[in-house]
Amino acid sequence: QELESLIAEENALRGGYSTPQTLTNRDRCRVAQLALLDGPFADLGDGGCYGDLFCKALKTYNMLCFGIYRLRDFNSSTPSQCTKRFVIANPPYEFELVPTDWIFCLMQYDHNAGQSRASLSHSSHSSYASSKKSSSVHSLPATANRQNRPKSRDSREKQNRKEMVYR
């Protein structure tokens, strides 16, 4: 209710202060989809191999690729309106890429933090919600449940002692 009144009065949300704790929470990776149709990997999208893409993404952008999201009818001779896709997890090095592929990868949560030697193209900064077809990076929400994990070795030992007491 307080949030609703703040939004109604000020018509905006303001960010809070960045503390060391919040900055530490943001130092993580996210799952993303890279479109091979445009962006920094477009040169590998037409006949390139997955291994070259994997190495380029890792060395240049600090991204870890782990799968391909491919159109079901990518090689039919007639252009189809089929939008069904399937996942190819951990393809071999020589696996051939096609321009309509999307690549699943892990990338630094702050996309500017991982760019050491090169920068992503302007189209890679667009969000998933704004335009699925024209952007080359699509973010997916993280689903990991971090609340139940002990944070340190001491807290793990405490958790183990609690479990032993209850047994």
From TrEMBL:
Q: Which domain of life is it from?
A: Eukaryota
InterPro entries from the UniProt entry: K_chnl_Slo-like, Slowpoke-like_C
**Keyword line:** Ion channel, Ion transport, Membrane, Potassium, Potassium channel, Potassium transport, Transmembrane, Transmembrane helix, Transport
Region feature (Disordered): 118-167
Residue ranges annotated as compositionally biased, kind Low complexity, are 118-140
Looking at the keywords, is Transport present? Answer: yes
GO terms, molecular function = large conductance calcium-activated potassium channel activity
Coiled-coil features, chain-numbered ranges: none
The record's annotation in Pfam families points to: Slowpoke_C
Q: Where in the cell is it found?
A: Membrane
Q: What is this protein called?
A: Ca2+-activated K+ channel Slowpoke-like C-terminal domain-containing protein
What species does this protein belong to?
Answer: Micrurus paraensis
